[in-house]
Amino acid sequence: MSHTQPMVRIENVQKRFGNLEVLKGVSLQVHSGEVVCILGPSGSGKTTLLRCINFLEPYDAGRIYVGDDLVGYRERNGKLAPAPEKEIARVRAETAMVFQQFNLFPHMTALKNVAFGPMKVLAVSKDEAERRARELLARVGLAEKADSYPA
C-alpha cells in the first residue's frame, strides 16, 4: 500500500434496515496518521457505519476498503459476492473498534483487558501483549491505571 493511499476508503455506502435507510451513499477517506471523528445525532448511522467497516454489519451497496482489501465482499465482473468468513476474519483482526458503551471484563485489570485481544486474536505472547498494552495505556494517559479494575 502506498503512503498516499487512504487506510480506509468508503465509497457510496448504503445500508437499510427494512424501510429505514440508515446510510445514504456515505463516502470518506481516512489516511494514515489522520484522526477522524464521526458526529451526528442519535440514530444518524454513526455506529452502523463503524460496524460496516469491520463487516459486523453487511452493507447493501457501495464499497469499503481497509488498505487494499475490499471488506466483506469480493468483486466479480463488477458485482459483489460475499467473501469467505476466513477473509472477513483476517480484515477484522487488523482493525479495532471501541463502542460508546464499551464493556471491559470486570474481573480483569485495565492492563489485562487491553492485552487480551492481541493474545487471543493475533496469538501474541502474554509478555509482548502486556508490554504493548502498557505502552498504549501510557499513550492515552492511563499508565497509572494499569493494575486497576473497571469498577
Task: State the gist of this model.
The chain is α+β, with helices and mostly antiparallel strands and 151 residues long. It has helices at residues 46-53, 85-93, 110-122, 126-139; strands at residues 8-17, 20-30, 61-66, 69-70, 73-76, 79-82.
Radius of gyration: 18 Å
List SSEs in N-to-C order. EEHEEEEHHH
Shape: globular
The proportion of strand residues reads 15-25%
> How confident overall, as mean pLDDT?
89
**Number of helical segments with 4 or more residues:** 4
Poorly predicted parts: none
Report on the architecture of this protein.
The chain is α+β, with helices and mostly antiparallel strands and 151 residues long. Strand 1 and strand 2 form a beta hairpin. Helix 3 crosses helix 4. The strands form two sheets. A four-stranded antiparallel beta sheet has the order 2-1-3-4, with helices on one face. The chain has a two-stranded antiparallel ribbon with strand order 5-6. The protein is built from four helices and six strands. The mean pLDDT is 89. It is globular, with a radius of gyration of 18 Å.
Question: Which helices and strands, and how do they pair?
Answer:
Layout: E1 8-17, E2 20-30, H1 46-53, E3 61-66, E4 69-70, E5 73-76, E6 79-82, H2 85-93, H3 110-122, H4 126-139
Antiparallel strand pairs: 1-2, 1-3, 3-4, 5-6
Q: What attributes characterize this protein structure?
A:
151 residues, 4 helices
